[in-house]
Amino acid sequence: MTNATATPKKNGFLAGTANYVDERVGVAGILKEFGRKIFPDHWSFMLGEVALYSFLVLLLSGTFLTFFFNPSMAETIYQGSYAPLKGAHMSVAYSSSLDISFEVRGGLLMRQVHHWSALLFVAAAGLHMLRVFFTGAFRKPRELNWVVGFVLFVLGMAAGFTGYSLPDDLLSGNGLRIIDGMMKGIPVIGTSVSTGLFGGEFPGTAIVSRLYSLHIMLVPALILVFLALHLFMLVIHKHTHYSGPGKKDTNVVGYPLMPVYVAKAGGFFFIVFGVIMLIATFFTINPIWNYGGYDPSPVSAGTQPDWYIGWLDGALRLAPTGIEFMVGDYTVSTNILLPLVISLVFLAAVAIYPFIENWVTGDKREHHVLDRPRNAPTRTAIGAAGVTFYAVLRSSRTGLPETRENTTFLTVHVTHQQGLQSAQLVLPSMPCSGPVRARI
Fold this sequence. Notes:
By secondary structure, this protein is mainly alpha-helical. The chain folds into two domains: 40-308, Cytochrome Bc1 Complex, Chain C, CATH 1.20.810; 376-440, no CATH class. It is built from 16 helices and eight strands. The chain has a two-stranded antiparallel ribbon with strand order 1-5. Helix 5 (107-135) packs across helix 10, helix 11 (307-318) crosses helix 12 and helix 13 packs antiparallel against helix 16 (430-439). The model is unreliable at 400-405 (pLDDT under 50).
């Protein structure tokens, strides 16, 4: 009789490391359960992934830019390599932006990667929200996740605006001047709010450093928190899927997170990253050297913000002028207050729409199978009215006549003023057009 002693099999380095971590942290059970999560496969679900990966590119490129940007509004004389501006008086912030573009190796590419990925982030988030809206993916139990996604979209716009204003060039300065005018148009508190934000009379000496703090710390931190909350709720509620054979509210048909979905998601991230790099390499965006540093005297009537803020600019342009009245010692300017109120009401309606539909329909069931838009005509009509409302405001955000920014009106052979007057007539009918379209 022999006594055989089993020799324990020696694990490899990765297996040994995994066992070491699991014995001390106990993550194996969590990863096993999480890895079994099923995710359906459909191209429209990739819109949210594009937004997520764009944000990762934003973090990477933004970290690079923070190494070289100086958010100071102190005056300096430019002595860099861009000859047309050599010897010009400008802020340190604008000078450092020029240095990033012309002195730092890879700096211009990183600036453009950062800007393009910001545009893609907001665009993908907006399209993702439209997909969720038209398919009814916001219904119980995902109403709160819709609100979280809406907050992410607003934070994306806030991050874009604060970043767009940092170079302190003529274009971004004019954009800040518009914001200053809007704040001062608010009765009673407007002037105090403007003075507090700008650190004195516009443009002040502190706005760039304050926007910089918001842009690199507060807003990205909030986006990360809400992204984590959004993904956590996605896992808790399980993913929705389109109707089809074997697909019900009680199941999810798709692929497990690990290894199939993780491998596909990893590859898709590099595709998104590569497309952004390719666009940033060949297509110039925001050439700040063309405008010079900010100076309140040369005002550009063709100044326009990025597209996702353009609808707010269009609301200002469409507001009727000359309607002002006094309340005590305060002037109430409706051409400023009206666009502000309408924009806030529109955003609030988007945020609370799931609760409105739930209240109107009385539907208390859980929904995991998505609607086809054609099968929910009332919701589709309301969404189409909202998109049209946005499009009218966005198309009114035009530059001067005979400029390339004014293509919206030039392509239909109307003047700038005729286009704005037509938009003013059409805009009030947009909120009422949803029910009409639903009946049609």
